[in-house]
Amino acid sequence: MAKKAYDYLFKLLLIGDSGVGKTCLLFRFSDDAFNTTFISTIGIDFKIKTVEVDGKKIKLQIWDTAGQERFHTITTSYYRGAMGIMLVYDITQEKTFDNIAKWLRNIDEHASEGVERMILGNKCDMNDKRMASKEKGEGIAREHNIKFYETSAKDNICVEEAFMRLTQDILRKHQAGATQDQATTGVVIPKENRAKPANCCST
């Protein structure tokens, strides 16, 4: 019997308003490429990348979702099965930051209860056009106990670090849950306390 090429398969989801750079982040992480001519994602697209974390090979299935309101129901249907969600806003467009609360409610309503979440303030290379301060991003992440990074797909700032940290958090939660499940029967396992938000892009 052929050995599997990976130990775990994790489904990740990129969500957020249209134009915040979700597709650029995806291609930067999956292909180490940046293209300014991406058109808006129509519905759903995904990329596959296999990484190694803590000695385990993880196959990541990363779904890039449309941010436009008219595709809202398509996006919602793809929350199912997601183990990690990256909520992306554009630091140069304050409205996209203001909509984080809406997207967080979406996650609460439609995603699995134990899903790992992360907030990304994208386009931190455009600090001269910044409309949403880093402190505001850190604040909302702290309020919801979610990790936070500022990223730049264009300049490749903290993109891989954010994806790898999310993958690591999912793996460790999965392994902790499996260990506890083996050690207990009929016992409710308490939710893990999430680590305090981290940040990366220093501007």
TrEMBL record:
<keyword id="KW-0636">Prenylation</keyword>
<dbReference type="InterPro" id="IPR005225">
    <property type="entry name" value="Small_GTP-bd"/>
</dbReference>
<dbReference type="GO" id="GO:0012505">
    <property type="term" value="C:endomembrane system"/>
</dbReference>
<dbReference type="InterPro" id="IPR001806">
    <property type="entry name" value="Small_GTPase"/>
</dbReference>
<dbReference type="GO" id="GO:0005525">
    <property type="term" value="F:GTP binding"/>
</dbReference>
<keyword id="KW-0547">Nucleotide-binding</keyword>
<dbReference type="InterPro" id="IPR027417">
    <property type="entry name" value="P-loop_NTPase"/>
</dbReference>
<keyword id="KW-0449">Lipoprotein</keyword>
<dbReference type="GO" id="GO:0005737">
    <property type="term" value="C:cytoplasm"/>
</dbReference>
<keyword id="KW-0472">Membrane</keyword>
<dbReference type="InterPro" id="IPR050305">
    <property type="entry name" value="Small_GTPase_Rab"/>
</dbReference>
<dbReference type="Pfam" id="PF00071">
    <property type="entry name" value="Ras"/>
</dbReference>
<keyword id="KW-0342">GTP-binding</keyword>
<protein>
    <submittedName>
        <fullName>RAS related GTP-binding protein RAB10</fullName>
    </submittedName>
</protein>
<dbReference type="GO" id="GO:0003924">
    <property type="term" value="F:GTPase activity"/>
</dbReference>
<comment type="similarity">
    <text>Belongs to the small GTPase superfamily. Rab family.</text>
</comment>
